[in-house]
Amino acid sequence: MIHTENEKRGWVVGITGASGSVYGVRLVEALLEQGFPVHVVVSNAGWRVLSEELGWNAGKREQMLREKFDGLPGKLHYHPIADIGATIASGSFQVEGMVIAPCSMGTLSAVANGTSDNLMTRAADVMLKEGRTLVLVPRETPLHAIHLENMLKLARLGVRIIPAMPAFYFHPETIADLVDFQVGKMLDSMRVEHRLFARWNGGQAAARLSTED
């Protein structure tokens, strides 16, 4: 596949059954807003959580995605979790990389151990074998030794592990602010420019010292 200078390669976004489906939805939205093609894969448990947390109708999957993302510059591609023949299941189909947000411990374990038993874990395996960007956003607490060992194993392979741990130094006022911070950290690892949160500039103490100087 030949890409022109102005053409953007797409990203794959996976949404699993861990709590925090809003992270994946906001990431898809942020990428589409910048004109990126986005390939979305949602696990069956992920659809359950989208229903529980965001009120989505899991029985009308593609319709819900269209209603949420229609009108944005980028192109959305939805792939059912069982479609092992989808484009993103092959390394010959070129994308920039993949983010799984949120990432359940079951999916993280499958990726860490090469268990490609559905489209999401196969797509993640493709990212690893092709040396592309892979970002996982685990959302679980507390973590036991197996969780930590799987994360360490993946980190040693170059996978970016970004736990769902929003910060508070930028004085968030809404839940949306906390979500944007987390999604912004994902975009940083993807090397995608954004303005989703105010970056640290030394804080009030630094500003005071600067004034005194």
TrEMBL record:
<dbReference type="InterPro" id="IPR036551">
    <property type="entry name" value="Flavin_trans-like"/>
</dbReference>
<dbReference type="InterPro" id="IPR004507">
    <property type="entry name" value="UbiX-like"/>
</dbReference>
<feature type="binding site">
    <location>
        <position position="43"/>
    </location>
    <ligand>
        <name>FMN</name>
    </ligand>
</feature>
<feature type="binding site">
    <location>
        <begin position="104"/>
        <end position="107"/>
    </location>
    <ligand>
        <name>FMN</name>
    </ligand>
</feature>
<feature type="binding site">
    <location>
        <position position="169"/>
    </location>
    <ligand>
        <name>dimethylallyl phosphate</name>
    </ligand>
</feature>
<feature type="binding site">
    <location>
        <begin position="17"/>
        <end position="19"/>
    </location>
    <ligand>
        <name>FMN</name>
    </ligand>
</feature>
<keyword id="KW-0288">FMN</keyword>
<dbReference type="Pfam" id="PF02441">
    <property type="entry name" value="Flavoprotein"/>
</dbReference>
<protein>
    <recommendedName>
        <fullName>Flavin prenyltransferase UbiX</fullName>
        <ecNumber>2.5.1.129</ecNumber>
    </recommendedName>
</protein>
<comment type="function">
    <text>Flavin prenyltransferase that catalyzes the synthesis of the prenylated FMN cofactor (prenyl-FMN) for 4-hydroxy-3-polyprenylbenzoic acid decarboxylase UbiD. The prenyltransferase is metal-independent and links a dimethylallyl moiety from dimethylallyl monophosphate (DMAP) to the flavin N5 and C6 atoms of FMN.</text>
</comment>
<keyword id="KW-0808">Transferase</keyword>
<feature type="binding site">
    <location>
        <position position="185"/>
    </location>
    <ligand>
        <name>dimethylallyl phosphate</name>
    </ligand>
</feature>
<dbReference type="InterPro" id="IPR003382">
    <property type="entry name" value="Flavoprotein"/>
</dbReference>
<comment type="similarity">
    <text>Belongs to the UbiX/PAD1 family.</text>
</comment>
<keyword id="KW-0637">Prenyltransferase</keyword>
<feature type="binding site">
    <location>
        <position position="139"/>
    </location>
    <ligand>
        <name>FMN</name>
    </ligand>
</feature>
<feature type="domain" description="Flavoprotein">
    <location>
        <begin position="11"/>
        <end position="189"/>
    </location>
</feature>
<keyword id="KW-0285">Flavoprotein</keyword>
